[in-house]
# Entry
Amino acid sequence: MRILCVHQGYELYGSDRAFIDSVAALREAWPQADIEVVLPHDGPICAPLRASATRIAIEPLLILRRRGLAKLIAAAPLRIVPALWRAVRRMRSADLVYVNTVVVLDYLLAARAFSRKTLVHVHEIPDGRKLQLFRQLLRWTRAEVIFNSKATRAAYRLPAACSQHVVYNGIAAPAFATTVHYDGKRPLRLLMLGRISRIKGQDLLIAALAQLPQDITQRLEVRIVGDSFQNDVVRETALRQTVSAAGLDSVVRFEPFRQDTAPLYRWADVVAVPSRLPESLGRVAIEAMAHGRPPLVVRLGGLPEVVEDRVTGWIVPPNDATALARTVAAVVTDPEGWRGYGAAARVRFETMFAAASIARQLQSIVRARFGTHSIDAKPSPSLAYD
# Structure
């Protein structure tokens, strides 16, 4: 069994962790398989992948990112032929091709020739013309598709004849979730974790905090944790300046992204996910629930599938700083009103998003299409880089 797994990232953000989990699920079901992983760059993702991958190949990929899209299109005529050649060469020798995104153009184009053995796992909801482009790419592949939420599936609107599934992202949970002990006598600890970008909504959270009266902001400790893609200094500087202009320097602390996020969740009372554009699911919200922390999210994309409003967390209208501020104020001033949310969040996580259950769903899809192989004790893979 030769399995080829392709991913567009190399860090340890949500989509990267989802890819690591998928590769681990394939290794668990096919312990004797030769699993080759293809990435565009070396990076933090490689260390955890070594537990499951036979080898990791680092090579150029045609990735359709929001930033630099025009530059990529302009260079495509020169890059497309060698990129397709590399993709076809690897796909031809594989029994299963698992592509963890719709933004890897070369592998999606090549998938048309290998549709019967290609599985595309969609984790993103683009906007505008990008969504139309990716929808056409998915239809072009004729491959089997896994969407990470009902919202993602609805956004792409593939014909019913296309083989498609919805499988939520699984999270490896801590053995137990600590209890939130917020009684209003100390500052509320509000965490926002994720890449700094216009999509994630750090600016929206800051705008909401700026609307709060001083007696509320004095009862808050806010940590915004994450880095921008390719060190977008302009965006990061603008956020810090906005915080200073609002007089929130003593309230809001910026921190770089860290690989071990568990201490952040244990510190937090509430985790904010104020996305500006639709999240395909919302891994940070799920991770918060795994730690027994209620998420405060917006009604966009897959986030309403994660959080049960006023039971396991809060859902507010999107792109509405006033509504977000109003909810934050209520959280600060009425701790009794949400005392049981953390425990309920943990139960919902265990029911819907536990890693073992999600891994079995992915394994079942692969078995149904590609057949079964014997499952033995896991070997020690021989690891190398191309």
Summary: The chain has two domains: 2-170+354-370, 188-349. The longest helix spans residues 69-92. Confidence is low (pLDDT under 50) at residues 373-386. The longest strand covers residues 34-39.
